[in-house]
């Protein structure tokens, strides 16, 4: 058996789920109700489908070039220098995404649990955590995601299940929403939360059976998207659309509003947030891993470990650039839109050109038949 | 040959041995005549040999002609042949011509006999070392299961394994390690099961060790483990032959060292450290519950103090109000922040524990009473610690005692301290960061190529049946997949449970029918 191809289909699905579910879940219901008040679950579903297109393109590309990542096969498809420019854009984008994720979560922690800690500290701690773990190889990377996958999924489902006690189905009506003018930008903002799924392109070359990439992305998207829709529905169901608009992190408020039966823990928000550290960590790990690995491939280095610490100061400074939470979320939205072009249009272009030029990567021979 | 003064090579050889070993007072040299005419010398280390065998089976036999040859005339060139084939009542005889190796054999407790006119020396296995009896394993006691434990002598330990695993597929390869101690190290594996690459890797790592003294298997462990800086043990040790046997038939490799009662088992995954022999000898439902308790104990010993510190200092709103008030009341007179208080108590607990291990048993009991009184009662009434802290520390300590493997419990004990500090600085956030770091480290560890958190981490469902709970034996027909054994099934997959028939159904009984009539 090929020693470097160890990652299974389930692990890929777990990587996708734990990458997609991250700090974005906390303001997610806010984005959704701003777009289409009581139709929030519906618009989330639309965004999930939208986000799936990018994933679909990536898995089709990955199955066409099962031995390479996007950094490598783009050079075959559109030529050396245009591809390098594109790769550099991808790398810069994911470095920015990493920094924004760390900053966003740093703000959440500082606001709700560690009120006296400077945000710089929480951000650097998160980034250091990601840095240490990025220095592992891709197999360990897959193990990490697979290991945390239940820790991410179940607390979220748990909070949702407990909150149903306070939910009112009336809050979700009309399910089409009242005011459809903010639909498109809102859907785009939510779809931007799925950008982490770009990590798929880094792990396909290590997949045992790359043909299953498509199946893995469907499974991953169904789980992650399903969780998104459920969380939005639960939040709107509990608070109602208008109330949700006033909350900065409605999902966190949802945790705050629920309590365990038998009064074991008085409040769940801090506990939920702490468990959510794993979810944010996996998202951060994915985007940082993607950044460093792609940089390593771009410079034709044998491994990417060198970049993990080298990039850290830059990412940290990027994370500290926004002045406050409001400015940060403006930047998050903006970067999300730009990112959509990159994660959607760039793979689409590559796929189109590769079909037109009939380019195809070396298939994975004997491993494929196993 | 150093000396040239002597007349014969026989005297030269004697001089050589005498020069090498003669200045030791426990070295014996005895001259005699074979069959009353040929001069010969016996060399041995006095107290290492069996005097009975030396006197009667060797000396006596060689001094007299064997009865069937009474009449024969023995020529010098037949001498060696007759001595070996007709005279000695001894089955372990080697002929050795190189004088350097005579010395090697002597230091190992063998007897060397030189005969005038013969170049080769007779080397006889006469070693007799005092050894303790086979006792119950002190560190791995079970209620249900075999009671035998390894002792120091390698040959006895190998017998204990062979007697439980009576198959010719068991391979024992003995190598010699330690430049000065020349310790025998036995590598055991199953020829038709164990992955050959694994066996080769074990041999490769062992043979690369070049150290002067190997006094225990623990020395070898530190050379063959994968990550030397990890707090987690990556090699399992055991003093139970039955555990070694069950690991052998799972496809692992065992390493025994002469002079050490602890066998090493590689590769090792983390879940082996909380499994015990009893998990398999007792019925599965009960032992699954017990294993759960053990897992809770592990979690206690790792995170309980840090969780307490984090909640008390940062998030008291998490716990129910009445309890929070009680905790605050208990802490009213305590001058330190929770993190300092817990650290002080933890450190004194470690000191106490270390003290009880070193003391003789009779005194140890007294000390633990004093320790409990001081740490528990006095610390609280002196306003030094709050009662709830004492409860937390007690639970933590008991939790670490409940972990079956001492080395794994030690790792968790050690990791508790950074976690407490992190909890003191960052609260629950810090605890979580610490746990993620620990988990990531464990996920990246490998023992001889096998992922440390297997079967959890690569996600092998077959193996997960023996992870959190212990599935019934008939439900686990396969050997651990990651060991890549040559033969996968450990029981007949078509019929795991023998079919049962109701042999004594009341309906079949004839007297029952009679009664009814």
UniProtKB/TrEMBL annotation, chain A:
PANTHER family on file: SPORE GERMINATION PROTEIN A2
Database matches in InterPro entries: Spore_GerAB
Membrane-spanning residues: 12-33, 39-61, 81-102, 108-129, 141-162, 182-201, 213-239, 270-290, 306-326, 338-356
Locations listed in the record: Membrane
Membrane topology label: Multi-pass membrane protein
Gene Ontology CC, one term: membrane
Pfam families in the cross-refs: Spore_permease (PF03845)
GO biological process, one term: spore germination
Keyword Cell cycle recorded: no
Taxonomic source organism: Cohnella lubricantis
Keywords, alphabetical: Germination, Membrane, Transmembrane, Transmembrane helix, Transport
Main location: membrane
Sequence similarity: Belongs to the amino acid-polyamine-organocation (APC) superfamily. Spore germination protein (SGP) (TC 2.A.3.9) family.
Protein name, UniProt field: Endospore germination permease
NCBIfam families hit by this protein: 2A0309
TrEMBL record, chain B:
GO biological process: spore germination
One GO CC annotation: membrane
Membrane spanning stretches: 292-311, 365-395, 415-438
Region entry Disordered, spans: 489-517
Record bears the keyword Chaperone: no
InterPro entries xref list: Spore_Ger, UPF0353/GerABKA_families
Top-level division of the source organism's lineage: Bacteria
Keywords: Membrane, Transmembrane, Transmembrane helix
Similarity field: Belongs to the GerABKA family.
Annotated protein name in UniProt: Spore germination protein
Source organism of this protein record: Cohnella lubricantis
């Amino acid at each position: 058996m090929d020693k470097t191809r160890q990652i299974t289909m389930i692990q890929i699905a777990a990587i996708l789920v734990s990458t997609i579910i991250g700090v974005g879940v906390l303001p997610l219901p806010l984005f959704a109700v701003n777009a289409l008040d009581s139709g929030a679950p519906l618009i989330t579903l639309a965004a999930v489908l939208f986000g799936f297109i990018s994933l679909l393109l990536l898995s089709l590309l990955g199955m066409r070039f099962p031995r390479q990542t996007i950094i490598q096969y783009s050079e075959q498809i559109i030529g050396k220098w245009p591809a390098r420019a594109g790769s550099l854009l991808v790398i810069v984008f994911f470095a920015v995404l990493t920094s924004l994720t760390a900053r966003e979560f740093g703000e959440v922690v500082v606001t709700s649990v560690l009120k006296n800690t400077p945000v710089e500290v929480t951000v650097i701690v998160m980034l250091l955590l990601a840095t240490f773990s990025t220095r592992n190889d891709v197999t360990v990377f897959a193990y990490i995601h697979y290991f945390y996958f239940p820790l991410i999924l179940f607390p979220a489902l748990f909070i949702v299940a407990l909150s149903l006690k306070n939910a009112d189905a009336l809050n979700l009506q009309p399910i089409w929403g009242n005011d459809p003018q903010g639909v498109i930008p809102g859907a785009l903002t939510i779809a931007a939360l799925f950008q982490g799924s770009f990590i798929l392109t880094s792990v396909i070359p290590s997949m045992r059976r790359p043909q299953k990439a498509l199946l893995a992305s469907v499974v991953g998207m169904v789980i992650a998207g399903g969780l998104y829709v459920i969380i939005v529905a639960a939040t709107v169901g509990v608070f109602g659309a208008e109330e949700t608009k006033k909350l900065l992190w409605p999902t966190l408020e949802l945790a705050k509003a629920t309590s365990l039966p038998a009064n074991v823990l008085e409040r769940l928000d801090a506990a939920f947030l702490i468990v959510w550290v794993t979810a944010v960590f996996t998202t951060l790990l994915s985007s940082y891993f993607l950044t460093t690995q792609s940089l390593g491939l771009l410079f034709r280095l044998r491994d990417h470990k060198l970049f993990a610490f080298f990039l850290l100061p830059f990412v940290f400074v990027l994370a500290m650039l926004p002045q406050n939470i409001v400015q940060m979320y403006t930047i998050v939205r903006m970067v999300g839109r730009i990112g959509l072009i990159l994660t959607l249009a760039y793979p689409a272009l590559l796929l189109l050109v590769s079909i037109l030029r009939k380019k195809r990567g070396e298939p994975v021979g004997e491993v494929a038949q196993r | 040959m150093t000396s040239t003064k002597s007349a014969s090579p026989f005297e030269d050889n004697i001089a050589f041995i005498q020069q090498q070993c003669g200045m030791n007072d426990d070295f014996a040299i005895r001259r005699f005549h074979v069959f009353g005419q040929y001069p010969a010398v016996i060399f041995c280390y006095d107290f290492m040999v069996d005097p009975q065998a030396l006197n009667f089976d060797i000396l006596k036999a060689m001094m007299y002609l064997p009865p069937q040859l009474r009449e024969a005339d023995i020529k010098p060139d037949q001498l060696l042949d007759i001595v070996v084939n007709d005279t000695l009542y001894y089955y372990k005889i080697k002929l050795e011509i190189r004088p350097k190796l005579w010395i090697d054999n002597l230091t190992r407790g063998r007897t060397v006999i030189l005969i005038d006119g013969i170049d080769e020396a007779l080397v006889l296995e006469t070693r007799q070392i005092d050894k303790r009896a086979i006792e119950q394993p002190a560190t791995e006691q079970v209620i249900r299961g075999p009671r035998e434990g390894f002792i120091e002598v390698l040959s006895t330990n190998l017998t204990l394994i062979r007697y439980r695993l009576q198959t010719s597929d068991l391979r024992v390869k003995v190598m010699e390690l330690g430049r000065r101690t020349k310790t025998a190290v036995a590598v055991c594996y199953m020829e038709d099961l164990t992955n050959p690459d694994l066996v080769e890797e074990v041999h490769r790592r062992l043979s690369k060790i070049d150290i002067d003294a190997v006094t225990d298997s623990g020395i070898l462990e530190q050379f063959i483990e994968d990550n030397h800086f990890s707090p987690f043990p990556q090699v399992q040790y055991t003093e139970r032959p039955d555990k070694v046997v069950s690991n052998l038939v799972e496809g692992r490799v065992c390493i025994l060292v002469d002079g050490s009662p602890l066998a090493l088992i590689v590769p090792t995954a983390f879940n082996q450290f909380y499994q015990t022999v009893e998990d398999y000898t007792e019925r599965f439902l009960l032992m699954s519950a017990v294993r759960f308790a053990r897992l809770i104990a592990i979690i206690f010993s790792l995170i309980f103090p840090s969780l307490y510190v984090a909640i008390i200092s940062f998030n008291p709103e998490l716990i129910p109000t009445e309890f929070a008030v009680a905790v605050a009341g208990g802490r009213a007179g305590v001058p330190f922040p929770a993190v300092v208080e817990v650290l002080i108590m933890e450190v004194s607990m470690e000191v106490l524990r270390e003290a009880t291990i070193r003391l003789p048993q009779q005194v140890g009991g007294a000390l633990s009473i004093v320790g409990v009184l001081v740490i528990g009662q006095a610390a609280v009434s002196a306003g030094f610690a709050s009662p709830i802290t004492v409860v937390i520390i007690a639970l933590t300590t008991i939790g670490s005692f409940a972990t079956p493997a001492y080395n794994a419990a030690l790792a968790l004990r050690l990791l508790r301290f950074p976690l407490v500090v992190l909890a003191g600085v960052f609260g629950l956030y810090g605890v979580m960061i610490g746990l993620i770091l620990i988990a990531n480290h464990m996920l990246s560890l490998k023992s001889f190529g096998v992922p440390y958190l297997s079967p959890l981490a690569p996600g092998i469902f077959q193996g997960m049946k023996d992870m959190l709970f212990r599935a019934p034996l008939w439900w686990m027909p396969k050997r651990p997949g990651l060991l890549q054994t040559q033969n996968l099934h450990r029981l007949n997959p078509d019929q795991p449970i023998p079919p049962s028939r109701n042999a004594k159904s009341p309906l079949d009984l004839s007297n029952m029918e009679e009664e009814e009539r």
